[in-house]
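The material for today's practical consists of a large collection of protein records. A record pairs a protein's sequence with a compact description of its fold. Instead of coordinates, the fold is spelled out as a row of discrete tokens. We will come back to this pairing of sequence and fold again and again. Here is such a record, shown just as it appears in the course material.
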Amino acid sequence: MNAAEKSELIRRGELSSLALCEECVSRIAENDQAGRELNAVACLCPDWREQAKARDEAKDKERSKKLLYGLPVLVKDNIEVKGLPNTAGSYVLKDLICEKDSDIVRRLREEGAVILGKTNLSEFAYWMSDEKMPSGYSSLAGQVRHPYNPAFDPSGSSSGSAVSVAAGYCDLAVGTETDGSLMSPAIANAITAIKPTFGLLSNRGILPLSPVQDTAGPMASSTKDCALLLSAMVSSTGKNRAADYTAALCSDLAGERIGVFTVKGTEDDEAALNRLKEIIEDHGGEAVECVLEQGIVDEEECFKTEFKYGLNRYLKEQSCSVRSLKEIIERNEADPERCLKYGQNLLIESEKTSGDLHNPAYAALRRRVKEEAEHLLFSLMEEKNLSSLVTVTNSVITNLAAVSGACSMTLPARVFNETVYDPLSFYLMAKPYRESNLIRLAYTLEQTLQLRRRPSWRK
């Protein structure tokens, strides 16, 4: 049963929101700190029962048009939820208690969701250290574990959200991405995720890595659930007025020219690519073979300036004991055994920058990097008149969509192997604000393959 069907049953009184949430919390209790010790959930909202009861007891619930009515949702621990910590996995930010909801959480509540709790992540959205720090690790919560095999990499930084969906803690979770933090854990944990166009969703109330690339995004066990959650997350006011992405859930690709791409110099799964082309053409689309000259542009130096700028601005608005990146570094150094298991070289390198987005050298670098990504991605699409791009991959090639601000999506391409780590997923890209193109293609692929998408230990 998908999320929309569950929500409809709750509205009709045939399913209890409280019972659904209790089932989710029971799975978390059995498998997060106990059982399989997945360590994906940072905390539960203390009022989740009251939220669910309010949905069940509402007199007008049967007439409600709220998209997520009564459905539990988990959100990543860099997204503000009123009354809960917003730590980004940092031990020194454990006393940062949110005074209000982020815009994303406000939208979820407006659409009837029960905010169940928050998920663990790679510390500072994987911008802590590149000195052998594993993805899914944070000084506050420790290591998130893969739901299929604890020896596998859960990937980051939205590892807790991805694992929560794969483990059946909930149907719907929210992660964030700057470059790969939605797509990579979705591939690694065999779930579906959408990285929306930069600017489609509000970033207010999200602890930042890069204010020019960060975006929240939906993570779920199916394309249908992802489309539903994205529809609920979009602001209902201003230029980003609410959109119903579930309208794109059809297996009709007639008139679509879809680029089946590879990246120059990489090895590809020919059989999987050929099957992908067959599915596209069997559903009325035209599969156009194409090659990206390169899949990566180097944005790392930009992030250093952007992280310092964004974090310092964010902390100045919070009621917590640290007020700047410099103070975080000093607090970490004062407690190295707890806070610096893998170092903090990225924090230190960020602190050395101007932290000024108007700095001419920074601005020129960011402009060059963005233009390069846009040229590589959009020129290919325009040259071949493509509505979207898709490939089959077992690794992350998220950079061009992330830097250019384009939308992207991923979903499993085969059943996950629990003994050998060898994920295979479809990875889709489209120009900004073309999320519906991705959802239509993803739904077609998903409905054609009908893959089992849960660990064997899940009943």
About this structure: The first helix runs from residue 3 to 11.
